[in-house]
Amino acid sequence: AVEDALFRLEGVVAGYGDVTVLRGVDLAVRPGEVVALLGANGAGKSTTCAVAAGDLRVTAGRVVLDGTDVTSWPAHRRAREGVLLAPEGRGVFPGLTVDENLRTWLADPGPVYERLPQLARRRGLAAGALSGGEQQLLTLAPALVRPPRVLIADEPSLGLAPLVVEQLFEVFAELRERGVALLLVEEKATSVLELADTVAFMRLGRVTWTGPRAEVDDARLTAAYLGVS
Ligand code: ATP
User: pLDDT by residue (tens digit) across 113-141?
Assistant: First the structure.
């Protein structure tokens, strides 16, 4: 049921200049739910993230957070109210070490290191020298310490080493346990499908199918990507 959703996009139309990319997107994420938004290149997934985070204005439709219409809210106001777009939620200082980065906002980074051993091993290294995945883990550390209400991640596992992806998805799983509503966007239905509770397929600027992960089989995946669903 859409009514118990914490975060919703309703009939969102948006684009760039004269180009309409989103043609009526409906999406709903509940507390403690992982929604995987899947679709081919150019389907409009990144544009959906931009609208959700408040980085792009809609030309029609609404964005609703916990029953409040936040469509006109700028990104910083949505962020303050707990809508976090990863990994841009909080910047990393490339010249500071991992430990110094964490200590800019956290008195004792111990709990972060416990959950993210990959970062613990790199604590003395300049953040700018980390791999992309490690930097992503570092930007997600605040979410672990103080969970957002809604976390949106665009292609979180893209180009990351398997070990880092594993840790990243452990972070997402923990956030789900703690009641965060997660919208995870991926092009390919790989690791994210294992974590997802709900799957939404996107094609040509619309969500063409939404349903429980259990109903997603190979036939459904093929149909979704080929556009026959
Ligand atoms: P990808 O995985 O390739 O990022 P996507 O599903 O995330 O695909 P979007 O990035 O949302 O899709 O792009 C959807 C369409 O919008 C594409 O046709 C793309 O060319 C266009 N588009 C994206 N960003 C811009 C922009 N800043 N200006 C103009 N057109 C854009």
Answer: 998 888 999 999 999 999 888 888 898 88
Q: What is the CA(112)–ligand 1 centre distance, in A? A: 34
Using DSSP's 3-state secondary structure scheme, residue 101 falls into helix
Confidence band of 1 (pLDDT split at 50, 70, 90) = low
Our mutation pick for probing the ligand 1 site, out of 9, 13, 16, 202, counting the most ligand atoms within 8 A of Cβ, is 16
Query: Are 50 and 56 a contacting pair, CB within 8 Å?
Result: yes
- pTM for the structure as a whole: 0.90
Alpha helices in 146-206 (DSSP H): 162-177, 191-195
Distance CA 215, CA 33 (A): 16
**What is the spatial distance between Cα 167 and Cα 118, in angstroms, rounded to a whole number?**
8
Query: Does ligand 1 have an atom closer than 6 angstroms to the CB of 205?
Result: no
70 alpha-carbon distance from chain centroid: 18
